[in-house]
Amino acid sequence: MSLTETLWWYLENIWEYFFQMLPCMGIALLLFLLLRPLRRRRLARLHLSSGPWREGGLLLFVMFVAGLAALTLFPSYFWRTGYWLSALRGESPWFPPVDFRLQLQTLQLEPFQEIFRAFRGPWVMFLMVANIGIFSPVGFFTALLWRKPRWWKSLLAGFCASVTIEFIQFFIGRSTDIDDVILNTSGALAGFWIFCLLRVISQKFVERFQCHPRGGYYCE
Question: What are the residues facing 212 on neighbouring strands?
Answer without folding.
Answer: 49
